[in-house]
Fold this protein.
Amino acid sequence: MRIVFIGPPGAGKGTQCKRLVQWLGIPQLSTGEMLREVIGQGTALGRWVSGHMTSGQLAPDHLVMRMMSRRLREPDCQRGCLFDGFPRTIVQAQLLDEFLQRQGQTLDMVLELDAQPEVLVSRLLRRADIENRGDDDWETVQQRLVVYQRQTAPLLDYYRSQNLLVTINADQKPDEVFEVIQAAAGGA
Ligand code: B4P
């Protein structure tokens, strides 16, 4: 099974994917985590990526797709995977479609995690206190919300037109969100 998670920053994509990994036994592919690993290597590329993330911008499409296609070729992804925060632009979605088509694979479902902006901001500011992430301060979070509306939200129509989109109210407790996701994924 291949499921894409779309949602604004702080909607809980990572939180819910981690739970679903246990339940479905397929890997979680988080482009956010992949990019943070690149940054952690302290190379020139890492510093370049860090500049994008700490200003609330997305990393470049070609770089993200290169990381993702390398990961998708690994054996544990052949049975399926959870796309956590990828694709985030129409270009990434088209590149993913082309990649999957070449492999004779398809997406089963796209889950949109929907929550109110004030809920998202308060979650991310709380996370900033715990994890000290460079992109969770108030100003950067505002910028990330703008970028989500401009660059990622158009994907909802893209996947709606393919009859893949299921919208979940992510404005509930994590356990409650997970129950709804299990019901949706169980029926796919
Ligand atoms: P990500 O790492 O994907 O993170 P995110 O969007 O901030 O958060 P997510 O929705 O996963 O929230 P989480 O579960 O952690 O992206 C970070 C950055 O990487 C992007 O801004 C971008 O620059 C770059 N990037 C990533 N993918 C990219 C791509 N494809 N192309 C280009 N650039 C890319 O939850 C957040 C907090 O809320 C946590 O503290 C959690 O405990 C809490 N929480 C979650 N659900 C909750 C609930 N139901 N109730 C209460 N709290 C909850």
